[in-house]
Sequence to fold (292 residues):
Amino acid sequence: MDLGAGRRGVDMGPSALRIADIEGRLKTLGYKVEDEGDIKIQVPEVLKIKNPRLRYLPEITDACEKLARKVKKILKSGDFPLVLGGDHSMAIGTLAGVAGYCRDAGKRLGVIWIDAHSDINIPDTSPTGNIHGMPVAASIGLGAKELTRVGGDFQKLDPTNIVMIGLRSVDEGERKIIREREIRAYTMTDIDRKGINTVMEETLDYLQSRTDHIHISFDLDSVDPTVASGVGTPVPGGLTWREAHFVMEMLAERGALDSMEIAEVNPILDNLNKGAEFAADLVASALGKRIL
Ligand SMILES: [Mn+2]
Fold:
């Protein structure tokens, strides 16, 4: 879907990833892949915006409920859910599904949020009313009840079990929430200073010591627009080609990954599907593709 974004096009992200043969890349690694198809979502042309502070709230809530059920079911059956999108409001559904599974299984959930933006706005702080800026907030119980209650009326995520990586565009209200809730965050400045290796070592040491299920939500706009231009909200100064792959390679090396989501692939802003090709290759790296 692209209902949660201000710009059109990320609803075509899953098609672009399929065309980039994400399935074939994973089969090459030895996985059995089952494509569950798309979740049926209306296009904005036939919808009306009822609340400008929470644009397309009923439709996004409905899509996220469906997604949450699917993700939970896949985890319950012992499989690995890979969710392709789509604007990042989808994470409300993905995280609700993962959290519901963890709750039933008695597992503590940790989330690595790789993104140029912190996506932790609430309707009062959001400059746009676009729900793709709100999924982290919803997952820690902040903001519209319709969104915090997706997948059940419980807090999906402990804010201290989140690590954000790649930030470079954070709204004033978001800064306050990140500080108050003591959310771990590595900005691009931190990555420049420490290097991506240290950032990942620290992230995984931290999450592996305090959680039993690690989920990664990867927004393609975390990557520099010169590497991937076909993203939802391009912001200069992002991860390099190798930094992005290194993040994924580290996750695979540590066997740290239990579920995954790729968001904000936008073919409209892309050139010859390069962004989706890059994203599909990143998924392969996360799931074990190695150079040697
Ligand atoms: Mn995002």
Observations:
- Residues 57-76 form the longest helix (20 residues).
- Strands lie at 82-84, 109-114, 162-167, 184-187, 213-219, 259-263.
